[in-house]
Amino acid sequence: xxxxxxxxxxxxxxxxxxxxxxxxxxxxxxxxxxxxxxxxxxxxxxxxxxxxxxxxxxxxxxxxxxxxxxxxxxxxxxxxxxxxxxxxxxxxxxxxxxxxxxxxxxxxxxxxxxxxxxxxxxxxxxxxxxxxxxxxxxxxxxxxxxxxxxxxxxxxxxxxxxxxxxxxxxxxxxxxxxxxxxxxxxxxxxxxxxxxxxxxxxxxxxxxxxxxxxxxxxxxxxxxxxxxxxxxxxxxxxxxxxxxxxxxxxxxxxxxxxxxxxxxxxxxxxxxxxxxxxxxxxxxxxxxxxxxxxxxxxxxxxxxxxxxxxxxxxxxxxxxxxxxxxxxxxxxxxxxxxxxxxxxxxxxxxxxxxxxxxxxxxxxxxxxxxxxxxxxxxxxxxxxxxxxxxxxxxxxxxxxxxxxxxxxxxx
Length: 411
Hints:
The structure is a single chain. The chain is built from 18 helices and no strands. The chain is mostly helical. It has one domain: Up-down Bundle (Amino acid/polyamine transporter I). The radius of gyration is 20 Å and the shape is globular. The N and C termini lie far apart (50 Å). The mean pLDDT is 88.
């Protein structure tokens, strides 16, 4: 039973990383626009995040070093500081988007709208992080976020064509029109990068240290990363499939993540809507928890402060103040009425720029026999890691130009 419950770290990381507010709309829009043609990009992203999560978790178990320590020791000092600042700003933007997303879900579930919903979201998330230790937080959001599995059932009940599904895992251009091709690749890039957001490995590795992983827990790490991230990838694919089947024929292009929850109404009525909204609240709320804690982890680790939710807040005062500030700044940003979906898309695109540097530090350390000993990467993992480094560099170079050329996918 202990090993089963340990999977909640991977489930929380995956559900919060794959099915955040940006993914809920991004995946659904991709399904409406291109049916199954972009499933291959989610497969690439899922394998990539499994690979680097396993590496970062293994490093944490063997060396007790979180990812920001690896960035600091691997990269030149000024570059490492730049990565810290950039990732902190992006964590704040992402956290703001997630707060707004939970507030919208609360509005649909219990009828509280606008400022009261945002305040309720901020107070509840702050209270949860303040009161509960890390293990309780990961199990609460990880297990309750499993309500999103209703979308797996929704996708299954739409009876997608098996042949078309299989073709979706083979990259294929949608048309010969240049603008359509650019938009297609913008969505492909967005789906890959949203699956491999840097904060996921920052949070995952720090979570492994919070859970006191040792080399004896490497099997738990492999299973947690594999099962958790695979579940996240399957949920994202289910959103694409369900949207293609249910929204595609009527040409409905949702602009709010609450619209995504309506897909569960069609086969399951009010019960489906309830499960979808509960899953969204805990998944998007989990992403807010991840980004606020990941930001605090990074800053505390870089400057050598005592950190962690395994102790009382007063024992780690600077770390505590930092995650409180991240949540507070996110709250202020979303109170200005900024569209949370727009914030999430900007965060996804600009996070890609940080991606290669973060993953390089993880790959280099996990391949180092001096630090990892017999637990260093196998040759296959190293080769896969370098292939994904090339992918990360390509999407980092293409992200901002595609965003500009496609008007963020709007053409």
